[in-house]
Recover the amino acids of this structure.
């Protein structure tokens, strides 16, 4: 059995995204000088409100902005600190303004897509809402230093993400400090490197982290850029946070290492030690590495991945997968016809046989969105069949789009109701996530989904068993959620090897815009686009097995 640590950080962030409240405010607290609500520049629009209120922290006030746009379809709710220092306020305002600008441009883009969708289909979306939220916390403060954590969550439909950004200020001068300013000299980088490397290597060797030692070594090399996200705590611990892909596979999300402050206390400047209470009392050691019990799939991964021809990004994920799983060839026992009773559309091209001709499966996750109708137009124009892993929340909003997918020969898979990390859920909730989605889809197309793609690609033995469905993974990941650039996305997909399952998201305009070029390039290599079921035919997809790509790779024509 291979044990994986499924993104503790991600679980934490999902929790954070639920916490919509801002910094707790003591209602009866003394209102300071700045406690009077201030008029906001440009607040002529009634939908925008700004307030300043007291916080539970001395000399820190809460500045809050709420903005509702597009008839309530998009919501911004941010709060940020307001202090006695103009310089601190200016910085906090600037980073918050950048977040607000991102919100406005995202909300405008989604609203435009919605209006286009409405004009095309005559349908109104029931509940589509874009949320951008930010609140802050003070993780440590005294007269000389203050640490702010800005906690952000963004939801642009069925999916969202959340993250924490730390800021440190000299309270006397108002100057922003870098992490290196907290340490006596540069030797902290070597220490952090050694400590985190050791902690992560342990997790790799215990198979709790989807990574290898070279990867960890690169990501923890003693360079400031590798350690730019560190949160020092007053509870005797500190957190080192590594970006997605920095030290492990993407499935892990942001990787966090929690270590005892004592391990670095001797390198901190005296005033920082004082702030964190290190010298005032003997701190109990932290708990060390955060661990979870999430286990990665015990199930056999049936199809090998052609790593040599893969894109670098997907190879990173799949190198890890392949190192932990046993691969079996396409055994005769699997050669069964895909049974009746599952989704079948008369429009599937029966003449295509992927045992003979070169095929790939193009898949789209997280929709349908307001871009999906446009995508369906493109696919229709080019006579391409794809597979959509839809979210129940989105199906509810755009049921007609899902009905159209099916009518036009595309396949529809389950991507859960609202995109949770299933490995954190009890069995009954996993089943509820799938059942609710299936019930809606069955009403539209007359049958349930034949397979599951778990959100974040995160699954374990329990998820496999509870779902009772085959799991469809992917072998090519263009990182289209990160790089919102059609040319980049297209370039990463065009070289997909024969037999690939290609991951993409129909919730990004840039991805949809990339599709015509992708179709032309892959067709130009003599490769056909088919649905996932078609890609594996005549092999039957089995429950509790994980499918990454089609094993037989006929030579390109
Ligand atoms: Ni997803």
């Amino acid at each position: 059995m291979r044990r994986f640590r499924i993104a503790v950080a991600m679980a934490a962030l999902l929790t954070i995204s639920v916490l919509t409240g801002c910094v707790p405010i003591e209602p009866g607290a003394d209102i300071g000088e700045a406690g009077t609500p201030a008029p906001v520049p440009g607040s002529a629009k009634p939908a925008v409100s700004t307030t300043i209120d007291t916080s539970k922290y001395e000399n820190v006030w809460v500045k809050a902005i709420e903005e509702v746009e597009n008839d309530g379809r998009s919501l911004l709710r941010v709060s940020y600190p307001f202090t006695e220092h103009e310089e601190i306020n200016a910085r906090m305002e600037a980073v918050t303004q950048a977040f607000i600008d991102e919100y406005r441009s995202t909300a405008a883009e989604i609203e435009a897509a919605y209006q286009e969708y409405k004009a095309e289909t005559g349908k109104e979306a029931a509940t589509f809402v874009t949320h951008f939220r930010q609140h802050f916390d003070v993780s440590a403060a005294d007269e000389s230093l203050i640490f702010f954590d800005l906690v952000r969550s963004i939801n642009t439909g069925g999916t969202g993400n959340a993250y924490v950004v730390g800021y440190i200020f000299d309270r006397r001068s108002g100057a922003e400090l870098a992490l290196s300013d907290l340490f006596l000299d540069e030797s902290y980088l070597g220490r952090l490197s050694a400590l985190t490397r050791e902690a992560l290597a342990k997790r790799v060797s215990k198979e709790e982290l989807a990574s290898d030692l070279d990867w960890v070594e690169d990501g923890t090399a003693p360079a400031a850029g590798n350690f730019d996200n560190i949160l020092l705590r007053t509870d005797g611990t500190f957190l080192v946070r590594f970006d997605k892909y920095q030290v492990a596979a993407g499935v892990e999300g942001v990787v966090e290492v929690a270590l005892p402050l004592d391990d670095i206390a001797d390198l901190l400047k005296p005033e920082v030690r004082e702030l964190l209470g290190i010298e005032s009392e003997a701190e109990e050691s932290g708990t060390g590495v955060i661990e979870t019990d999430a286990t990665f799939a015990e199930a056999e991964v049936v199809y090998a991945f052609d790593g040599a021809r893969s894109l670098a990004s997907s190879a990173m994920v799949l190198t890890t997968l392949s190192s932990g799983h046993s691969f079996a060839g396409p055994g005769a026992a699997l050669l069964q016809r895909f049974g009746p009773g599952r989704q079948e559309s008369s429009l599937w091209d029966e003449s295509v046989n992927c045992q003979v001709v070169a095929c790939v499966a193009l898949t789209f996750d997280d929709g349908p969105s307001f871009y999906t109708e446009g995508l369906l137009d493109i696919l229709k124009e080019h006579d391409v069949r794809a597979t959509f892993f839809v979210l129940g929340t989105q199906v509810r909003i755009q049921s007609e789009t899902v009905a159209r997918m099916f009518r036009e020969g595309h396949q529809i898979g389950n991507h859960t109701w609202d995109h949770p990390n299933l490995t954190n859920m009890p069995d009954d909730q996993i089943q509820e996530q799938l059942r609710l989605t299936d019930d809606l889809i069955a009403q539209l197309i007359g049958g349930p989904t034949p397979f599951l793609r778990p959100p974040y690609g995160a699954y374990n033995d329990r998820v496999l068993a509870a779902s009772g469905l085959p799991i469809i993974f992917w072998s090519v990941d263009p990182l289209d959620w990160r790089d919102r650039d059609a040319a980049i996305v297209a370039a990463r997909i065009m070289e997909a090897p024969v037999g690939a399952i290609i991951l993409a998201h129909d919730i990004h305009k840039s991805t949809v815009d990339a599709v015509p070029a992708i179709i032309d390039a892959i067709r130009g290599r003599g490769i056909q686009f088919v649905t996932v079921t078609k890609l594996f035919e005549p092999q039957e997809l089995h429950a509790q097995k994980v499918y990454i790509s089609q094993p037989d790779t006929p030579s390109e024509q």
